[in-house]
Amino acid sequence: MADDDAERAGAVARVLAADPGLSVLRLKPDESLADAVAALAPDVVLVDMARPDRDALDGIRQVAALDQRPVVLFVDQDDPAFMEEAILAGVSSYNAIGTPPPDVKPILRAAVALFRRHQRARDDLRQAETRLHERAVIDRAKAILIKQRRLSEPDAYKWLRRTAMTRGRRIVDVAGELVKTMEGNAG
To answer: Residue 121 in contact with residue 127, Cβ under 8 Å?
Structure first.
C-alpha cells in the first residue's frame, strides 16, 4: 500500500488487517512504488492519493510495465480526466472515497477479478495472434510447395505434416524453415 497520508493509510490498513486472510505491506518513505512492488511481490497494489498527481502515475506505469498485477487507486476527489489517465497507466480500479475510508475489501476483490478477466482476454488475444501468424507461415510454405513441386494444397499440407513428424518438430517450425530457405534463396 502506498499512501503519503499516514493517518488515512493507517485507517485503510486497519480495515484490511481485520481480515486474517490479508497481509498489508506498506511502502517505505522515499521508496519508489516499482521498487517496493518488485521487492514485496504483492497480490494487489493499493495506491491512495489525497490529490491526484500525474507524476505519481509514472510509478503506476512502471509497475504495470514491469509486473502484471492489479493496481487499485483511491483518490479523495473524482477527476474524470485523471481517471482516464490512471486507467491508461495500468490502474485496474479507480475509486473516489472520502475519510474515513469504507471497507475496501470488496473494492480490492472486484479489482482483482476485473484484472484477471482482462489478463485472460489479453492472453487469449496473444494466443489468437500467435495461431494466426502460424497459419500464415504454414500457408506461405504450402504456396511455395504448390508452386515449386506442383503439389495440390492438401498434398502440400501432407508433405509439411509428414516432414514435421519425421523430424519430431511442429508443422509451423518446418514451414518456417522452408519459407526462410526458399525466400532467402529467392533474394
So the answer is: no
Q: Where are the beta strands (DSSP E) in the chain?
A: 2-3, 45-49, 71-75, 93-96
CB 160 within 8 A of CB 138: yes
The span from the CA of 45 to the CA of 51, in Å, is 18
Residue 121 has pLDDT above 90, yes or no: yes
- Is the pLDDT assigned to residue 102 strictly greater than 70? no
Residue 100: cis peptide before it, omega within 30 degrees of 0: yes
Non-local CB neighbours of 156 within 8 Å, separated by 6+ positions: 141, 142, 143, 145, 146, 149
First to last CA, the chain: 57
- Res 57: pLDDT: 83
Whether residue 52 contacts residue 87, with contact meaning beta carbons closer than 8 Å, is answered with no
Better pLDDT: 140 or 41: 140
Q: How crowded is residue 87: how many other Cβ atoms within 10 Å of its Cβ?
A: 14
Mean pLDDT score of the chain, rounded to an integer?
A: 85
DSSP code for 52: -
Q: What is the pLDDT of residues 48-70, one digit of tens each?
A: 776 666 677 888 888 888 877 88
The rounded Cα 171 to chain-centroid distance in angstroms is 29
